[in-house]
Amino acid sequence: MTKPAHTTPQHPEPEAGLTRETTGTSGPAGGSSAAQPGSTVGLERLSMRQLVFRRVTSNGLIMTGGIIVVIIVLLTTFGPMVISRGPLELNIQDRLQGPSGDYLLGTDNYGRDLLSRVLHGARVSLFVGFAVAILSTVIGYIIGMYSAYFRWADAILMRICDGFMAFPAILLAIALMAVLGAKTSNVVIALTVVFTPYVARVVRSSALVVKEQTFVEALRAQGASSNRIIWLNMAPNVVSPAIIQATFIFADSIITEAALSFLGAGVPPPAPSWGNILLDGKTLIFNNPWMTIVPGAAIILTVLGINLLGDGLRDLFDPHTGKAVRKGGGRK
Amino acid sequence: MLSYIVKRILALIPVLAVVAIVVFSLVHLTPGDPASVMLGPNATSDQVEALRSEMGLDRPLVVQFFAWLGGALTGDLGYSHFMGAAVTSVLMEHLGPTLSLAILAEVVALIIAIPAGIIAARRRGTAVDQGFMAFSLLGISVPSFLLGLFLMLIFAGWLGWLPVAGYRGLEEGLGTHLRYLILPALALGAMQAALTARMTRSSMLDVFRAGYMKTALAKGVSERSRVYKHGLKNASFPILTVVGQSIGTLIAGAAVVETVFNIPGIGQLIVNSVERRDFMVIQGVVLMITVSYMLINLLVDILYGFLDPRVRLS
Amino acid sequence: MTTTVEPNGAHGATDPEAPARVITVSGLTTRLATEQGDVTAVEDIDFHVDAGEVLGIVGESGCGKSVTAESVMRLLDEKTADYSGTVEFDGTDLLSVSESRMRQYRGGRISMIFQDPMSSLNPVFTVGQQLIETILIHQPMSKEAAKQHAIDALEQTGIADPHARINDYPHQLSGGMRQRVMIAMALICEPALLIADEPTTALDVTTQAQILRLIDDLRRAHDMATILITHDLGVVAEVCDRVMVMYLGEAVEAGPVRDILDNPQHPYTRGLLASTPGVDTDRTQPLPTIPGRVPTLYDVPAGCRFAARCPFAEDACRENRQQLTEIAAGRSVRCWKAVDGLIDAEAGAPNDGESAPPTGDHRAEGGER
């Protein structure tokens, strides 16, 4: 061995100074951190490859979910323009028909075109879901960031969030709708109240981690204002968990809106939403199952697409969940 | 252990306070005067005035709050004009079917979820596991009322195996009771099953990576005993937490499923009350379910403490 | 493989006085399926251990020493691991017996102690439950008898008040105590072979020396064959009879401990020794380290696996796969230049100050700090 030490590339484990790990002054922690060296066969050194691999697989989820969502958004946007009949157009003589050339998915008990109603209903459902996702994320972001930064705000805001989160989501939504009155805008308000604390919690816990990093300390020492640190320096580092949470809230809002409308406490008739089409269809379920199957399938497909997207994003952003992906399929 | 329990109970107090304030405020959030909203447009001003003073709406808010809170703490949740009875007694009348449904749904969920989660974890990465993951993702994407409608359509309508809707109490025999309750319980339990199964799978996978599983193997412990004795006991703690949390969700979710199957439980009560804008009942239902949800979670936490030696003996 | 050299050490195989051969591993190769493809984690490993003897397996993280040990007991996930070669124990090839037969060996005739006593014991069972479970798997006896046996075993490992400790959960014990419990559990069925995989790495320095001494004492008392896996040459110097140095899944050098420490042949072994602080090391100077990094198992070099980091490497090294070659009785090395004596010539005498071998004294010094 003639090469001097300083030419050694900095790599924590494979440096040759083996005994230093334990016999030196490093103490008990030195060795235990290099947990079970042989059993993972140097896999830890493959983290970059693993990351790439994981991105590909999670892209599979993102791709599938994304394609479903895009198709649904396209159908929602352009579908109603192509359909000649309006969602409220009554043709009593054609009531409760099955699918035909005239009515592609049949008609409901008033003879309204089911396809038209489901496509227009999609606009309402997606609007509610999207609006709730955006509003609760923005408000939750603000609450979460301030809670993370100011201890006094944390004490108050997080107690309030805990209180709201103690209610089962659907129950709080029903109660709020009962007092506010059945109206699409009230659905958005009620669901935003219900889901905001979930974003606030996630943003706060991620922001607390960011806050501990030295650059925040340095900025504070330089005398940067709190708002500047919070919004220009800390907030951008918390975007990904918030986006993931927003995706799941999007899906949950669509489900909850449908449930509320199904209970008669959501979007009021005659305007179509997936939930109230199901409500109309409920009493006629054996006479015309299409009224249940079509909006039902629309909900399931949309929510599944968004959940796939959310799962994919989570795998992409959060390396910890990928820990489960270790040894691949067995060969035997 | 005692300090652990005390800490858990103390942590509940601020949450309970927020819950109480929110529930109390519900009535006052309504646009306009709650009494006139409750009575509808045809009520005379005398009737409105009478209800106002009965509900105490003419008193200062703080006084109203403490009067209400004092009542709630002693089990008095007010009087429902529509039902012509005390809210508490109305609640009690409707509680049975809801509890029955929620418990059966939980049982269904656990029977499906735990074995499925364990099998998926043991077959990690195989087609079985991928099928499981796809199915569980579907499970969390189908709302319970929708699944209820589909199950009703298939099993009660097309196949005619089970009653379409309705409810028969336990007094009519367990068989009849279950026949009427099984579809709603499946509908309600499916999402919980998916969530619990995913949790079971991931905590089993965590456990499989633990050093003590290798020790057990090196000791000569059989595969079955390794998975079910050494593994499951360790994995059961996070699963237990999910189960505890699911009970509240199930009781609330029962509200929607009951509507599908015409079950005269709390859910139907709340839906009818929303239509009638019977704020007193709504307030009572929300408070009761939320508080019992919190208490169940407290119990689960304490149970957790008793089961996990690391908590019990610290 | 031209020569299947076994690091025989002091006792030759034909010597009638020789202690009984406990385990003979030949041509052990373990392939693992991973997401990135299959890797050969260890390749063509040969060694044997006699009763009462300690074989050290040394190398850096990921060199395959733990995989070697776990392959002997077939502890790797059956779905992803594929073994070949033979592991002869009690006249049976362990790699070809059924899983249920293998279970009887594990914990009964062959035991293992792991690195981290924090995670090796099951947190939800008491020490007693875990010890009794082990006994009852291998020896039919009443629960009471097993409990007494467990208490005796704890006492043997120097645990004070074993009657009380037996009802404790692992988290109530210190790291050293837990490792004593692991040792008690490993030895409770009086195995013929003990495999200790970095048994002291996770412990604090004073406890390390105690645990090492305990293993050594029990090994002597029970005349057990022992395989000690470590990255610490100080430990090797202190307790091992023979040593096998591993690099990237291969044995690169094997032989009696004194020979290897005093007269290392393989450039990797030399590097290891040079980078180990000895008594006479100038502590104001940084220790020399081996340049470069260990390649991953996914891109194993075609020629000598150490060539990229070897100061003596030439083109022939990078092109030709090296063979483990016997250079003296019980002494072998995987380096053609070492076999031909070229390395000594290039580097000068191996013992001229630069590579001061660690000694038992040095270990003791480390232990007291």
Q: Care to give the gist of this entry?
A:
Chain A has 332 residues and is mainly α.
Write up what this structure looks like.
The complex is a heterotrimer of chains A (332), B (314) and C (369). Chain A has 332 residues and is mainly α. Chain A has a domain of 184 residues: MetI-like fold. Chain A is 65% helix and 0% strand. Chain A is built from twelve helices and no strands. In chain A, helix 5 crosses helix 7 and helix 6 packs across helix 7. The longest helix of chain A is centred in the N-terminal third of the chain and has 36 residues. Chain A is elongated and about 75 Å long. In chain A, 51% of the residues are buried. The N terminus and C terminus of chain A are likely disordered. Chain B has 314 residues and is mostly helical. Chain B folds into two domains: 87 residues, no CATH class; 219 residues, Orthogonal Bundle (MetI-like fold). In chain B, helix 6 packs across helix 8. Chain B starts with a helix and ends with a helix. Chain C is of the alpha/beta class. Chain C has a domain of 252 residues: 3-Layer(aba) Sandwich (Rossmann fold). Chain C has an eight-stranded mixed β-sheet with strand order 6-7-8-3-9-10-12-11, sandwiched between helices. In chain C, strands 2-1-4-5 form a four-stranded antiparallel β-sheet. In chain C, helix 4 packs across helix 5 and helix 5 packs across helix 7. The N terminus and C terminus of chain C are likely disordered. Chains in contact: A-B, A-C, B-C. Chains B and C meet through helix 9 and helix 10 of B and helix 2, helix 3 and helix 4 of C.
Which keywords apply here?
heterotrimer, A: 332 residues, mainly alpha, MetI-like fold, 12 helices, elongated, disordered N terminus, disordered C terminus, C: 369 residues, alpha/beta, Rossmann fold, eight-stranded mixed beta sheet, four-stranded antiparallel beta sheet, 34% helix, globular
Q: Which SSEs are present, and which pair or pack?
A:
The complex is a heterotrimer of chains A (332), B (314) and C (369).
Chain A: H1 20-23, H2 28-32, H3 47-82, H4 114-149, H5 151-166, H6 169-180, H7 184-211, H8 214-221, H9 226-234, H10 239-262, H11 274-282, H12 290-317
Chain B: H1 2-29, H2 34-39, H3 45-55, H4 61-73, E1 79-80, E2 85-86, H5 87-122, H6 127-141, H7 144-158, H8 174-208, H9 211-219, H10 223-261, H11 266-276, H12 279-307, H13 309-312
Antiparallel strand pairs in B: 1-2
Helix pairs in contact in B: 1-12, 5-6, 5-8, 5-10, 5-12, 6-8, 7-8, 7-10, 8-10, 9-10, 10-11, 10-12, 11-12
Chain C: E1 21-34, E2 37-50, E3 54-58, H1 65-72, E4 81-89, E5 92-93, H2 99-105, E6 110-113, H3 117-120, H4 127-138, H5 143-156, H6 162-165, H7 175-187, E7 193-197, H8 205-222, E8 225-230, H9 233-239, E9 242-247, E10 250-256, H10 257-262, H11 267-274, H12 315-319, E11 325-328, E12 331-333, H13 336-339, H14 342-347, H15 360-368
Parallel strand pairs in C: 3-8, 3-9, 6-7, 7-8
Antiparallel strand pairs in C: 1-2, 1-4, 4-5, 9-10, 10-12, 11-12
Helix pairs in contact in C: 4-5, 5-7, 7-8, 8-15
